[in-house]
Amino acid sequence: MTAEELMVEFALTRLDHPELDLEDLAALVVRRGGPERVLEFAAENLAERGELRGAPFPTAVEHVLRVVLTLRGPSD
Question: pTM of the entire structure?
Answer without folding.
Answer: 0.85
